Amino acid sequence: MRAEDDDTSPRKASARGRAARRRPAVAVAVALLALALAVVLLGRFSLLPGLGDVFGVDTKDRSGPALLKSIQDMHRYEGAAGNFQVVVDLEKDARFLPDSIRGTRTLYVASGTVGAYVDLGGIGQDSVTVDAERTTATLRLPHARLADPALDPERSYAVSKQRGLLDRLGDLFSDNPNDERAVHVLAAQRIGDAAKESDLPLRAEKNTTSMLQGLLRALGFERVTVTYV
After folding, report:
1. How far is CA 38 from CA 43, 45, 171, in A?
2. Taking the model in full, what pTM does it have?
3. Is-contact 205 143, C-beta < 8 A?
4. How far apart are CA 204 and CA 217, in angstroms?
5. How far apart are CA 220 and CA 131, in angstroms?
6. Which of 90, 107, 192 is nearest to 157 (CA)?
7. CA dist., res. 76 & res. 204, Å (int)
8. pLDDT tens readout for residues 28-82
9. What is the C-alpha separation between 176 and 168, in angstroms, rounded?
């Protein structure tokens, strides 16, 4: 019998060894493919009529009561507020990898408000001048400022979310999947920039002047002048 016909020959033994070493790698690849397919199928089944309840999620609120951490006295008058809406298109790509493998893109519609106020806490005696007859008053106030943007969660929503395969798999093992903090921060910045280009401070100063004039005239002053320095 020839050596090549013997099952115990070195050549066949080496081939069997290589095949045995390939089996774990093939098994891992098959497992990952099956997991990715299951994720895709679950997402597709949720869109079919009648199957949404099968894969639905029950929401239970077990949150504790809110705790009061501090109280801050406010000495400012908010004379105007603007409502803003911005569409945020945030994309994060990975180098040398296609978007279908690694990358995220979120299209988010954010709505929020920005208030404009006049700080009355720093007004001293030298900021208010009253004549001897108490019929004329002059007030010198600081210019109006813009408050921080406040996003409205009830009017803000995600239009679409695109994620690569690795990002989808990572969400399965993440403590905070689909983290949208970066989108919220960018939306607040865009709304704040839009408020700076608006006439909110001027509107706030005008409304503050009207409020103070009406208040002091009700107290008997005939002429009330408000200036902003």
Report:
1. 9, 10, 14
2. 0.62
3. yes
4. 20
5. 13
6. 107
7. 11
8. 677 777 776 665 555 555 544 554 555 566 778 888 888 888 887 778 899 999 9
9. 12
